[in-house]
Write a structure and sequence with these properties.
400 residues, alpha+beta, conserved putative lor/sdh protein from methanococcus maripaludis s2 fold, OB fold (Dihydrolipoamide Acetyltransferase, E2P), 4 domains, six-stranded antiparallel β-barrel, MdtA-like_HH, transmembrane transporter activity, MdtA-like_BSH, Efflux RND transporter periplasmic adaptor subunit
Length: 400
């Protein structure tokens, strides 16, 4: 049987337990104070500068172009008409066919006009015979007058008959020519190489009755015109460049032009400047200009809207940067440049056309500038960056 603990022993145990708890609380307090004092001693360490890719502008020759929108027009476009009256006898081509100059296209009742030609030729032959007889009679009367065998009045009559015979012959010859021309009009031929439209009349129809009847249209497609307009500022710039280079008006007509359709890439069609108007259109402030292009494959049809560009001058050391490096705001286009202290600067620039993935920079950029081409969102003007130099490949120009 266990003896029960005395009250004095229980008091000693309670006092020891409380003493241990107090020691634990004191230890936690010291540890907490140590942690707090350690936090107060830490300092802020800024993050490293953002890494960005930079590139030096590419230098290469660049041709500055004048670009415009124009439309194509046929160099020759003629309505084929019936110039004599008669029934249409035959149509000698297929609608939309390409024909050579002189090809017979329509035939208009030729028999009647052939008979009229033969009739005129016969009348001409009779007039020639009458003239021969009148000349022979004149010579006889002239000899008889010299021998005083006939009177002068007889010779005058013979002279008059001869002159009338000559006039009749001339009239008969003219009638023959008119009949021949009318007979030629019965065959409507192609005046030049071209494509003939669908016929507008049918076989057996009476044509040319009261006025010339249109039969079809023939269009020359090779070469072909391109008409476009140049604004006044571009005209002044081109004239100044031509004056600087000593170009004459004839030299301007040798300037090449390049044309592209709306669905084509680049400007695959080549030609030359053909005509420049002498006066500016005051209502539009533009100068009409025309070019001419070979069109043997008939890729260009009259009436097409086309893109036109004309070389104005050439820059030997133009600066190119990746187009993705350009930004824009309300004041225009800009580039982010890393200066010698690796600080970002915002530079306003004037841009030119795009060639491939590179954009021409015409103003605001130097050849040794480091342009940020990647990591633009991490580059803030006025802050330092860690530039990583990357070489930009000099890509070929866009398709011409």
């Amino acid at each position: 049987m266990k003896a029960s603990r005395s009250p004095a022993r229980l008091r000693l145990c309670g006092t020891a337990a409380q003493r241990g708890a107090n020691i634990c609380r004191a230890g936690f307090a010291v540890a907490a104070m140590t942690i707090v004092s350690g936090c107060e001693q830490n300092t802020f360490v800024p993050p490293p500068p953002a890494k960005v890719e930079v590139a030096v502008p590419v230098q290469r020759p660049f041709t500055r172009y004048l670009e415009a929108t124009g439309n194509t027009a046929a160099i020759k476009n003629v309505d084929l008409v019936a110039r004599v009256q008669g029934f249409l006898q035959s149509i000698n081509y297929k609608d939309g066919a390409f024909v050579k100059e002189g090809t017979s296209l329509f035939t208009i009742e030729p028999d009647t006009y052939k008979l009229k030609l033969e009739q005129a030729q016969a009348a001409e032959s009779g007039a020639q015979a009458s003239l021969r007889q009148a000349e022979a009679d004149f010579k006889r009367q002239q000899e008889l007058v010299q021998r005083q065998a006939v009177s002068q009045a007889t010779l005058d009559t013979s002279t008059s008959n001869r002159d009338n015979a000559q006039a009749n012959l001339l009239q008969a010859q003219v009638n023959t020519k008119i009949a021949a021309v009318n007979y030629g009009y019965t065959n409507v031929a192609a005046p030049f190489d071209g494509v003939v439209s669908a016929h507008l009349v049918s076989v057996g129809e009476l044509v040319g009755a009261s006025s010339p009847t249109q039969l079809a249209t023939i269009v020359a497609l090779d070469p072909i015109y391109v008409n476009f307009n140049v604004n006044e500022q571009d005209v002044l710039r081109i004239r100044e460049e031509a004056r600087r280079r000593g170009m004459t008006p004839d030299d301007l007509r040798q300037i090449p032009i390049e044309v592209g359709l709306q669905t084509e890439t680049g400007f695959p069609h080549k030609g030359k400047l053909d005509y420049v108007a002498t006066t500016l259109n005051q209502s539009t402030g533009t100068l009409p200009v025309r070019g001419v292009l070979p069109n043997s494959d008939r890729a260009l049809l009259p009436g097409f809207f086309v893109r036109v560009r004309v070389p104005v001058d050439q820059v030997q050391n133009a600066l190119f940067v990746p187009d993705v490096a350009l930004g824009s705001d309300q004041s225009g286009r800009y580039l982010l440049i890393v200066n010698g202290e690796n600080v970002v600067e915002q530079r306003k620039v004037r841009v030119g056309p795009l060639e491939g993935e590179l954009r021409v920079i015409e103003e605001g950029l130097k050849a040794d500038d480091r342009v940020i081409s990647a990591g633009l969102l991490r580059a803030i003007p006025g802050q330092k960056v860690d530039p990583q130099l990357k070489k930009v490949e000099a890509q070929p120009a866009a398709a011409k």
